[in-house]
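Contributing new records

If you add data, match the layout below exactly. Sequence lines come first and carry their own label; structure lines follow with theirs. Keep one chain per record. Anything else will be rejected by the validation script.
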Amino acid sequence: MANAPPDGPSRGQRPALMPRRLRPGAVIGVAAPAGPFERPAFERGFRALCDMGFEVVVPPEVFAACNFLAGPDEQRAAVFNRLMADPAIDAVICARGGYGCLRVLPHVDYDAIARDPKPVIGFSDVTALLWALYSRCGLIGFHGPLVTTLADAAEADRRALRSALMGEERLHLGLEDAVAVRPGKTRGPLAGGNLTTLCHLLGTPYAPMFRNHILFLEDRGEAPYRIDRMLTQMAMAGCFEGVRGVVLGSFSDCGDEAEVRRVLTEAFADASGPILAGVGAGHGGANATLPLGAEVLLDADRRSLDFECPTAG
């Protein structure tokens, strides 16, 4: 399982693997592949999931804490693998981000996951896990709330999560507050996530390459010069070659918004395709669920994203 990944979306795109569609009363397992969490926020998120009509299974190991990690690497990976392999579990949501998913990637059982694909939900540091699952298996993942952020999420974001997991039709996101930095429309699979996490995958077997994809980026607490440094490094590594369009989510607590927007816009000045900024996804106040790996029509003029149905069955 620790072998380098075979050719995948980053090295010649493979077909997307659609996870199963959730039904009312579906069972969602909780994994903690990254950092430890505060119990009050977790318990409120647990109740929010139950209120959404799901049954929630919480393995006892997710409450472990080992410094800045939610337990040893092998244990965190084993819990995730067990949930993904359990036929009684319909989806897996991550408890918290922070840091740690990078360390579990070599221990994930990608072959077993490919045989029985399920929705995996999370954002921030979970970007590493979502990208690895997509690049190794083609699995469509869900960039959306964590258990510890769900209770404080807006009702619209909870509805968006439920719609993404349970909807039987195309998923439409009208983004009234977004800004068309570059007009136009394009189609392709959406991929990306947290900029810092993606940058830390460079030099690993899971290094991201987004050719023929629409790139999605978001971050928090990074000064404009650090954002520029990460974008420059990824550009020099060839990550952005052949990108069809760019969707920029929230960049909260990153300093002057105009300066951040300038840095992001300049980074993709030579890229073709539309650029839509200010999308309410990521660490900001809004965090709409985005199916990563799903085919999407990006229409910057209409400020909208229209996804093909990301689930099957």
